[in-house]
Design goal:
CATH architecture: 2-Layer Sandwich
Structural class: alpha+beta
Number of strands: 2
Oligomer: single chain
CATH topology: Wheat Germ Agglutinin (Isolectin 2), domain 1
Helix content: 25-40%
Radius of gyration: 12 Å
Number of domains: 1
Order of helices and strands: HHEEH
CATH class: Alpha Beta
Strand order of the largest sheet: 1-2
């Protein structure tokens, strides 16, 4: 997120949304092994913050996915 304006674009209730997603998806939705620690947009580069468009993922998978998406 360094150098990104994405933080500014998050909705006012982002912390609560993120907490609900991580509670819903305690295990990484990508690898199915490690605990989720990141809230990931299923569709990359979007401002759609509906919970149905978010998933809990582990740090390793989030880094890999973000890198592959050019984030």
């Amino acid at each position: 997120w360094a150098g990104s304006d994405r933080v500014r674009r998050l909705p006012s209730g982002w912390k609560k949304i993120r907490a609900r997603v991580l509670e819903r998806d305690p295990i990484c939705e990508l690898c199915g092994v490690r605990p989720s620690s990141h809230c990931d947009h299923i569709k990359a580069k979007t401002d759609d913050h509906r919970e149905s468009q978010l998933q809990g993922v582990c740090a390793e998978c989030h880094g890999r996915k973000s890198s592959a998406e050019g984030n």
